[in-house]
Inverse folding.
């Protein structure tokens, strides 16, 4: 397969095109529009972190931009502070505002979070209007000084455009490194599957708060530059149209991409100027152009350019990564002990007084009819649900009700009934996501992921996409995500579902090897021919209660189990 041209080529070409336009063709008004486009690109960088990568629709990004603008406006026009003081403070104040706000609203999901952040933006707008002694009220503040660098007053026009776009280049580089690094990959995992992210050891709350804070830093910097460009600040910088513009830039340019923020900002700010000759009809054409972009390029313009490049040059071949075995835990816990686990959903008692003991080197089976509570038990043990009663110990430590990410970092791993692999991600990236909470950087995580894939005999899949993988390979990839963390307790929810007899035999051999290395395995399975030869002990649930707890060889002969479960399977 041919290697695609480096993404640096179009970036360099685009930067040169902007430079030539600014130096040779732009009028003073054109330079002003280009400067404002740079301001919006800088604000969108932060939005690409919190929304594009993290999936949190924050409608406060425009408000944070306005806060940064007011900090510069107030300190510059009323107290005479220079750019060296106002610019960092314009970033710091939105960050200090975002942290407590984030702690309060980031627990909300989906549209509730969006509405909460919109409410914050409206409160800030009301404060700006109703505190005239501080903000100038509806009239705002005039007389904001120009930027002064090392004693040189930066005039409007080309020098100011150069300063703004120099900071855009720096901000874009920082955003790009964050997006490609551990933080960006963790946020993408959180966006695609928040439940799986927790079970991989990722602290969901801390990740969201970090992204929210970073978005505020970028927004504050953009607000400061906007005020120095316009030399006046008013409540308009806090109004909703600013947020709509940032959101539109991110969607049109390409969600989660720093280059998309630049491309979207340049187009969004210049399209109205290009269509201005249509007079009253230009808004209609402008709207149609944006709608066509969204429909024809759902991944944004940068995504469209990527697809065109693949069609012309083929996909870029991935450089093989150096594989490295992840370290074993320094102190191996003594498995997991569960006593009297109970969980109700409304009036339904899903799990009732379940106790089990998962010892190192053993495989324990968990069986029962559909709806008997097997998956609920695994969800309780892995931290996705909190028990109403009971006690759970991992390695002798009390972990009852602990969060999923804390249990994962303590040595617990699990799989899901349907292999939870992120759509559109590569196999290597999907497995490496399980090491992001443990390794210092993404490169180390990929090296450990390569080891896990090789350990499972699927190392050749590293460069493939998770999309379209057959059931057996998806199961192996998900098992690699569990294995790469070197867990001491492994919870598997129907891992043999959809596999052929040969694939089941391979899986059984692998599980025996893992148990032989000291891992404690809990195996939920319907296929008795697969489970019973593996398990030394079997528990059978019915309506949330344990009706059998004993050797695997005796479960077929137990009349209660036969009546509740095995008899039905046999008749089927």
């Amino acid at each position: 397969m041919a290697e695609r041209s480096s993404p640096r080529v179009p970036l360099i070409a685009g930067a040169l095109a902007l430079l030539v336009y600014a130096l040779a063709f732009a009028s003073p008004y054109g330079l002003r529009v280009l400067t404002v486009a740079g301001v919006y690109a800088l604000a969108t960088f932060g939005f690409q972190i919190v929304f594009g990568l993290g999936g949190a629709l924050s409608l406060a990004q425009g408000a944070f931009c306005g806060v940064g603008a007011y900090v510069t406006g107030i300190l510059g026009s009323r107290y005479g502070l220079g750019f060296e003081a106002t610019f960092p403070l314009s970033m710091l104040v939105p960050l200090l505002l975002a942290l407590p706000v984030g702690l309060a609203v980031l627990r909300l999901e989906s549209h509730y979070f969006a509405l909460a952040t919109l409410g914050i933006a409206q409160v800030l707008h009301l404060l700006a209007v109703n505190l005239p002694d501080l903000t100038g009220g509806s009239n705002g503040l005039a007389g904001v000084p120009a930027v002064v660098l090392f004693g040189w007053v930066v005039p409007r026009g080309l020098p100011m455009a150069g300063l703004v776009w120099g900071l855009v280049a720096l901000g874009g580089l920082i955003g790009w490194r964050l997006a490609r690094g551990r933080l960006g990959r963790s946020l993408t995992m959180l966006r695609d599957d928040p439940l799986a992210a927790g079970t991989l050891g990722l602290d969901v709350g801390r990740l969201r708060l970090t992204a929210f804070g970073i978005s505020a830093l970028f927004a504050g910097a953009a607000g400061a530059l906007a005020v120095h460009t316009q030399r006046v600040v008013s409540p308009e910088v806090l109004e909703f149209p600013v947020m709509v513009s940032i959101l539109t830039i991110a969607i049109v340019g390409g969600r989660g991409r720093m280059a998309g923020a630049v491309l979207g900002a340049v187009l969004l700010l210049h399209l109205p100027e290009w269509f201005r000759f249509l007079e009253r009809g230009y808004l209609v054409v402008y709207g149609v152009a944006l709608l066509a972009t969204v429909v024809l390029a759902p991944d944004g313009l940068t995504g469209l350019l990527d697809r065109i490049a693949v069609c012309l040059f083929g996909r870029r071949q991935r450089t093989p990564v150096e594989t490295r075995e992840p370290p074993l835990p320094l102190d191996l816990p003594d498995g997991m002990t569960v006593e009297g686990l109970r969980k109700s959903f409304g009036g339904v008692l899903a799990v009732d007084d379940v106790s089990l003991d998962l010892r190192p080197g053993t495989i324990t089976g968990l069986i029962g009819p559909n709806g008997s509570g097997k998956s609920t038990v695994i969800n309780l043990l892995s931290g996705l649900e909190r028990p109403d009663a009971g006690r759970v110990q991992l390695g002798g430590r009390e972990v009852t009700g602990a969060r999923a990410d804390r249990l994962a970092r303590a040595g617990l791993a699990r799989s899901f009934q349907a292999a939870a692999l992120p759509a559109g991600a590569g196999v290597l990236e999907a497995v490496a996501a399980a090491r992001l909470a443990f390794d210092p950087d993404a490169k180390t995580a990929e090296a450990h992921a390569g080891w896990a894939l090789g350990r499972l005999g699927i190392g050749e899949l590293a460069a493939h996409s998770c999309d379209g993988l057959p059931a057996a390979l998806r199961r192996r990839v998900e098992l690699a995500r569990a294995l790469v963390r070197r867990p001491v307790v492994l919870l598997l929810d129907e891992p043999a579902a959809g596999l052929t007899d040969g694939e089941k035999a391979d899986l059984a051999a692998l599980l025996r090897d893992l148990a032989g290395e000291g891992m404690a395995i809990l195996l939920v399975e319907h296929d008795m021919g697969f489970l019973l030869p593996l398990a030394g002990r079997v528990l059978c649930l019915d309506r949330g209660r344990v009706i059998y707890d004993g050797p695997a060889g005796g479960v077929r002969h137990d009349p209660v189990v036969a009546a509740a479960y095995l008899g039905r399977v046999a008749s089927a």
